[in-house]
């Protein structure tokens, strides 16, 4: 093979023992050789340096070798062994003694096919090391297996090559290549080439014609005549699709599969033994390996520096022995140290051992992780992985680590840890419960995600994957305000995109949930349609939300101002012109609302010009923004302010500005002051911490408050900053009580739990911090116009550069809600972080570490607020929503109506059956990533929107006739109509061109809510997903899902189409899906279920029905036969026998 391949090396693997198999490692630069004696040997690199050698089987020969990422698979007659490259056994799988295996094929990263001379092929899962499937083959004797993107190729000893389906392993095509037996074959692209033996009069003879098949037309093309007796062949596709044909005597010929063989292209391998036994080609096509009958291995390559793989990883070698021999000892030397003489190990105490009291274990601190690793690291669950930066030698680290700074600050520094806080402390200082939570999606979607791990309470969290779900924490704050919750749920109007209505629907779901998370998809859908929300920049693009580009603290404060103003407008009791001011948060209206009574503060804005002209304007504001004292550059001292002082300054704001003076008829410097005429019931405060200046103010005031709290309790602050935090807890008060249970409680007392406010007679306002039990309160409530406000919620911005940050809320849940939800009477603070809900100590609500936890919004409520408002909830949805309504579609005709609305006489009652089915369209495609191991990981699921909802009558003379068949109009862009599965076509949801009964989502939602509230039972197939997309919470006792009625534990879910064919002899969902047909079929299946359950006197009888269903499904591959195919199983003897039971 001069000019193409030449011999590099020949080595002996095992003297005198024939080589049975050779294999180039697919991951490292290694060549594996197996012998007839069951011994395996590996050689490294083109020099064939011996790497490892070990016994695989003591009696049988090694028949095939397959290299994996972490080890190598060895196949013997009835044994499959997985071993590390050094010889360590990972697992040893014994097959039946009657098995005679010859071939194996790795189909996926963890699935293996094993075949041999028996009439079946085994499928083995390498993760569980268990047989998962046994495929029966018609023609026994599979000795060679190959795979392409379309088929499994199986070579039989009878001379046939069968092409099998990748999923079912059924024969799709078959080539009868040779009349004798098959010797070898290979596949490349659209060509299959095979060599073998043909039957002659005297027996079998080697056929010098290679059979070549075109896999596109599935037929043979012109055979290729060669000049050697072919025993092995391989495609070597470098520039052309060359074939290498090898004879057992050592002759080798290269030729094109579609051309003529040239005798001049024959070369000779020089085996030591008489016969060549194995042949293999490296993945790079640069090297060929031959094994002969004397145990020698011959390596041929196209260059001396040939590599076996395009991208091989580094091979791990054993460390060399650093000491060749021990130094000699002179026994005659008196000063010889006794420690040089090795002594045997003993369990007794040695005289030189230190006493236990004088010693302590001192583990070596782990070094910080390389910054490059942290930068490139990706996380899967709680495991991170990153490429090796090659910055240090293997198994070596510097013994001396970087010492800590001697001036360690107990409050600002973060302890060292193995995950590298020394380089980037802000990455890991965020407490785990405050970090952004994400949903891990699997093949089953959300079914196997454990939300209970994040929420042990009966409160309902909110899912975060919906666009613009950054406001989840504020929704929870509004929900736990009892007057707001009751008011919103009593509200209902005709406006399609009313935030009040949608928020009421969401609050109703939060009421019904018993710890399961809800999603505010419908509320956020309405929120995105409000023009003012877009104008204020409250609508985030998906890319900005994922990357965290938006300033969440500023965003949630603007959202807080917007939602209060919008709810006030939606809830106004009287109609009238309104002036919306999103930026200022003030409003003027001809009427008032309960939202206005709760949140609005009547203020008097006075403008005084320097000419003496004073202008007074009365308005209302729904919230206040903190205004911080300005520090002068020449004043280096930091002043101490109470929170009450800052709050009073912010409410009674005084500022100098340019304003128009009607008296001067020009803009003049004006002093503007704000006086309070009426205080709100709920005091809402935006903290406005948007820069380091405000953050430093909070930090310094917290330190001042801490020092004052310690001194007030009679303690002293140690001068040394090296004192441990544990010592500070021992500070005592003059009364002998412990100063605090936690140093954190004293460290963050600047924000009070209660404040007291009083309106004075001269329109002034007095504000002071209030402490329960304080005997010297500056204000007395009996003086009138004195109110105590308790802290009810804090919304904080969590700074985390890894995830872009998040928003969480601390909410104080009162006795009323606890009594209704959990049956207990107490108050408790909770952390709400999307679907993570956890009880916390009250000091955490006012504890702000400005480096990662920044306050954004504060809610103070008047004490005994609930006694002032009516907290009863009356369901505003009436039966009239089910009556006939006009369609939004302009082209819809009554003759095309697909449903008959309910009459007043047939209104459903509690317990009535209603068949339900829904169809959906896709608004956003699924976002997924392909991992390094080839598996697919879902980052964000596709966003679905309901497009059609159908309800059919479940009893009565009109059973099976739909009374709701609504197509849902949508203004959002549809990415995929999913016509094959939904039956929805482009234009069906457009009011201008649709011929369907088109309505709004809110209208249909009200119909379903009414049915749920009166207690009907819904029958359908896969209702859990339907209700999730519709955004409904339905009690479990009102849902009858046929997907679970006909389901066996730990088995697959069965489609409605297959169940209808099997039990009802119906063939549905032909070209597209029809929701009326699906809902009606689900009702019939439920009737069949009741019939089967009633006929069976014992539970085992219905179990036999399900068992027969699954057996039939496996045989049919869960496919319904075509009209001229197999008949329905209703007439089968097995089915009839089971029914008879």
UniProtKB/TrEMBL annotation:
Belongs to the peptidase C19 family. PAN2 subfamily. Its EC number is 3.1.13.4. It comes from Phascolarctos cinereus (Koala). GO terms for cellular component: nucleus; P-body; PAN complex. HAMAP family: PAN2. Keywords: Cytoplasm, Exonuclease, Hydrolase, Metal-binding, mRNA processing, Nuclease, Nucleus, Repeat, WD repeat. Binds 2 metal cations per subunit in the catalytic exonuclease domain. It is an enzyme of class 3 (hydrolase). Residues 460-863 form the USP domain. A divalent metal cation binds at residues 917, 919, 1026, 1078. This is PAN2-PAN3 deadenylation complex catalytic subunit PAN2. Catalytic subunit of the poly(A)-nuclease (PAN) deadenylation complex, one of two cytoplasmic mRNA deadenylases involved in general and miRNA-mediated mRNA turnover. PAN specifically shortens poly(A) tails of RNA and the activity is stimulated by poly(A)-binding protein (PABP). PAN deadenylation is followed by rapid degradation of the shortened mRNA tails by the CCR4-NOT complex.
